[in-house]
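::Encoded backbone::
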Amino acid sequence: MISDWKQAEEALRDIEVVGHKNNMPVSVIGSLENLRCIGIGTDAAVFYYPDTPDYAYKVYSAQALEKKEVEEKIYKRLEGSPYFPQCYGSGPNYLVLSFEQGITLYDCLVQGVRVPEQVIQDVEEAREFVRTKGLNPRDIHLKNVLLQEGRGKVLDVSEYIKEGNDSRWEHLVWTYKHVYPLIREVQVPLWILETIKNWYNRINRVNFGIEDFTKRVTRLFFGERK
């Protein structure tokens, strides 16, 4: 197994992932001739190497190398669960994960792909499994959940050692039950999703009410469709 994924090391050395302040997404510098970037986050970028099709490589910025060590330990504690990718090993600045087919829930909204209720149930079971391992399932959002052959798979476990509930998943479940039936299989414009994300990231969590926020979002969406 190790000899397989190490085939990508030379290509990975040709790139640098650069972190930015204010929780901005990383930038990728260097040659991507033999790599395909399949995900960008605030600490790392994820790459696919065609010669090792079973693996994905999560490459961290220099500022986030401590998080790489933490995340590798979390994956070891979650080993055996069908709801998360597998971690096969690591390099100096990257983790080797199982390559997971499917599209994120964010892309489901963009493409008008129906999200079955089974996905919600799978994430709930995944969260319960995380708790049994003494971890805290948080930072679960539209871009961190994959629709995979009708089932749900959770990506990015890096915040599971943090305390507190960010309520992101609970808010998504509420919206799925009360709003999603109105827009199921509708292609949601990117600008609407990004506007909603920016609103959500700026809300006052102390006085936040999901019902009032949803009304604002609904006006934005249906106002655009008139």
